[in-house]
Amino acid sequence: MLLLYPTFESRWLGASPQHGGDHWLQALRPGAVMALLLLQGSVRVDWGLSSHREIAGNTLIWLNTSVALPSSLRLVGNPGHEALALHFPVEWVHSSLLSLRQEMSADFRTLLLGPHPVTPLITRPLEAEDRAWSRSLMAPTLCAAARHLLEGSRMSEFFFRKVLTESRGEELFCTRTRRLALERVAKVRTALLADLENPPTLEEMARLCGCNPQYLSRTFSETAGTTISLFLRRLRIERAAEMLAQGQANASEAALEVGYRSLSHFSQAFRAEKGLTPSEWVRRPTAANAR
């Protein structure tokens, strides 16, 4: 019987000089199947003294941490590393796939269902739609329960699309229209991040995406689960929160850096996204450890 509401979890990972490059290991959860979308930068995965593997960016890494956890997961090379870590409970994986064993490729079958390899890790090239999908996973501004359901639905779609379609070479879950929509979401995100202080207009982004503004606005909301304006707010607050946590700016400086001219409007937006005021965000214990 399938678990109706599995405890899925997603987490964005970046470079953190303060933690010496091995802090990604802390993001791994025991008893889970992990998909690590390595968008940028290389990593080295060590399994004790027995083996190690260096993996370049633009790779999708699958790990079964219920079999074994790496002893080390280190960033390699220049800064700028970025990845999205997805955690799927192993009980849910087993319940979902037992009747589909023959639909999976051999290495996925052994990694997920057994007999398990000594080093439970396989890799695949990261596809264009995977990058676009990762950018669209950013959940809209909803209550916690609704956000959990929406993220769980998107993560399960990703899981089955990657695990089950490979052996047949078919696109069971991702049509051409869906791929194009995901690519537009990624283009919008890139354009907004390029200048959070003075972001492009809807018309400018529509020209970039090759469609009219109304169509972009509608399909963006359908694909990303939120409006472009709320998506921009989330990007701005994420950038500001990072600056505050690392002591790079105070609230007023962070607000100006990401495009807020009013400190009160910035504080309202920050609380809506993070559930805390900027000052409360800075004082939280994890922020103190990051500096």
From TrEMBL:
Gene3D superfamilies: Homeodomain-like. Keywords: DNA-binding, Transcription, Transcription regulation. GO terms for molecular function: DNA-binding transcription factor activity; sequence-specific DNA binding. InterPro entries: Homeodomain-like_sf (IPR009057), HTH_AraC (IPR018060), PchR_regulatory_protein (IPR053142). The keyword Transcription regulation applies. Residues 186-284 form the HTH araC/xylS-type domain. Pfam families: HTH_18 (PF12833). This is AraC-like DNA-binding protein.
